[in-house]
């Protein structure tokens, strides 16, 4: 039988004045029609750190993540504030394409275009008007280096991206996001379709990338959250129940529902 947990929350993680934040939300609510899928989510994300969003299926993690760069605009109503560089980007006059260049997204299933590896990287860049071959070539190398894929593909840049393994395709999708020089990377269960070895590769890549980027990752894999994140937010039925340093979340969770979730006795 499902347990009834109260929605009383713990104090939400706050950061001292020395911590630079990449972005934060205040009282974010998301509605799919009459379905109130996200209640009052206020979370702050420290720059150059990895934050994991965890919780059971349907708890609202993807809904929250996709709202951060306005990917939910056409399917949901999102209220509340989304602060990014001092601007509330949840405003109608904000250029969402510009926002998505700064706040990139990598999805659960690797989704490279049916084009060459090189084209995958430069496609969006060219669409923004970058034409210079030297600049494009540099960006291809930098992005693939950043996603730890360069050494594996540098001699086959004109081969189809679809010929890569699933893990390589996912790193190509990360490289594709990096090509736009983002600031924040949102990843929605990026390893769920990958084998353990590819998962380790992606995790190592993310740990390296946090030196330059702020990373917010949805994961069902608690070991993964424990391995790579600095703080974790636990979602339950559309509520952020607890937001703590990852070590606290897994060693001394503050409330029963989190304790049950991380110990596997949730339900
Ligand atoms: N496009 C959509 N249209 C309508 N309702 C949606 C849509 N996407 C999600 N929802 C609803 O919003 C709630 C939260 O779903 P969401 O996908 O955000 O959860 P999740 O925690 O990411 O789940 P999972 O781990 O299975 O991906 C659910 O009730 C879901 O049915």
Automatic annotation (TrEMBL):
Example of a GO cellular component annotation carried by this entry: membrane
An example Gene Ontology biological process: phosphate ion transmembrane transport
GO MF annotation: an example: phosphate transmembrane transporter activity
SUPFAM superfamilies (alphabetical): P-loop containing nucleoside triphosphate hydrolases
Pfam families per the UniProt record, alphabetical: ABC_tran
Coiled-coil region: none
EC number per UniProt: 3.6.3.27
Positions of the ABC transporter domain: 23-262
Top EC group: hydrolase
Keyword field: ATP-binding, Cell membrane, Hydrolase, Membrane, Nucleotide-binding, Phosphate transport, Translocase, Transport
Keyword Translocase carried by entry: yes
PANTHER family tied to this protein: ABC TRANSPORTER I FAMILY MEMBER 17, PHOSPHATE IMPORT ATP-BINDING PROTEIN PSTB 2
Name of protein: Phosphate ABC transporter ATP-binding protein
Source organism of this protein record: Levilactobacillus suantsaii
């Amino acid at each position: 039988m499902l347990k009834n947990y109260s929605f009383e929350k713990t104090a939400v993680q706050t950061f001292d004045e020395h911590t630079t934040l990449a972005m934060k939300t205040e009282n974010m609510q998301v509605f799919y029609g009459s379905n109130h899928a996200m209640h009052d989510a206020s979370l702050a994300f420290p720059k150059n750190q990895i934050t994991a969003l965890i919780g059971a299926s349907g708890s609202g993690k993807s809904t929250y993540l996709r709202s951060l760069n306005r990917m939910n605009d056409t399917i949901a109503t999102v209220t509340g504030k989304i602060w990014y560089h001092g601007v509330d980007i949840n405003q109608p006059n904000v250029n969402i394409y510009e926002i998505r260049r700064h706040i990139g997204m990598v999805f659960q299933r690797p989704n490279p275009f049916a084009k060459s590896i090189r084209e995958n990287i430069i496609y969006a860049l060219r669409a923004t008007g970058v034409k210079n071959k030297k600049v494009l070539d540099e960006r291809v190398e930098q992005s693939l280096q950043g996603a730890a894929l360069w050494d594996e593909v540098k001699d086959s840049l004109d081969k189809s991206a679809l010929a890569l393994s699933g893990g390589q395709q996912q790193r190509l999708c990360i490289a594709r996001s990096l090509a736009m020089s983002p600031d924040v990377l949102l990843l929605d269960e990026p390893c769920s379709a990958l084998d353990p070895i590819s998962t380790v590769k992606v995790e190592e890549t993310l740990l390296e990338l946090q030196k330059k980027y702020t990373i917010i990752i949805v994961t069902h894999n608690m070991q993964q959250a424990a391995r790579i994140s600095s703080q974790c937010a636990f979602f339950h039925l559309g509520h952020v129940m607890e937001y703590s340093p990852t070590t606290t979340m897994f060693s001394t969770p503050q409330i029963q529902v989190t304790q049950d979730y991380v110990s596997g006795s949730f339900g």
